[in-house]
Amino acid sequence: xxxxxxxxxxxxxxxxxxxxxxxxxxxxxxxxxxxxFIPAARKVTLNPKSKFANMIEAICEMILDLVDxxxxxxxxxxxxxxFLMTIFIFIVVNNWLGLLPGVGSITIQTAEGIAPxxxxxxxxxxxxxxxxxxxxxxxxxxxxxxLGVATHLKKYFSLNPIMTFVGMLExxxxxxxxxxxxxxxxGNIFAGEVLLAVIAFLSPLIAPLPFFxxxxxxxxxxxxxxxxxxxxxxxIATTDHSDYNHAETxxxxxxxx
Length: 257
Prior knowledge:
The structure is a single chain. The protein has helices at 21-43, 51-71, 74-97, 125-147, 149-153, 161-202, 208-237, 241-256, and strands at residues 10-14, 17-20, 107-110, 113-116. The protein is mainly α. The protein has one domain (17-242). The strands form two sheets. Strands 1-2 form a two-stranded antiparallel ribbon. Strands 3-4 form a two-stranded antiparallel ribbon. The N and C termini lie far apart (79 Å).
């Protein structure tokens, strides 16, 4: 039988808080990330000899170059790199963990009935919504640190009624980012896992292999999309647009002079 559930199934309760199967998978994913990157960080040197360390270094350089291309400022790129790299690695590792054999097929008996022990973390809307909230909130925090709290708040609040209305629209836009971020990632990952489950049920031997490769690629792309959107919004939020306005005004004055 195919078990498909839109919501993650609670397995246990600790102090009244439900521990669902997607949360357990997220803990496993976090342990995998720590187990991979802590040893790699110790082996990374100016001339790393370990192939594993070289692979980790290549991934980090790829993300750092992407950040640098958007900011055009190496110092800023290095400053925001840890946050963006963490998002990318967490998403891609959990996307791929959800494709492993046993995820969704190993079941246990719970108080509500039989439920899978593991479920892809990003196939749970709670996880993707949490990631979206972290992305948007950290963008606002970084913007306040870069521009100053007062300058950043002027983007949303002003004594001018028209600018205040525009600021309210900006706030609505920030909330809509959370919705779009969370549903985009959840929809793609959940749909992929459902597709694999159906194909494996209909033809369990050879047919799932091409779709498995496709979902590996989709998991990587979705991690890159989420990270790149966060990067672009972060670059926009931390840019002082008054500097550009001042520069444009100076150019106009020089032309007239």
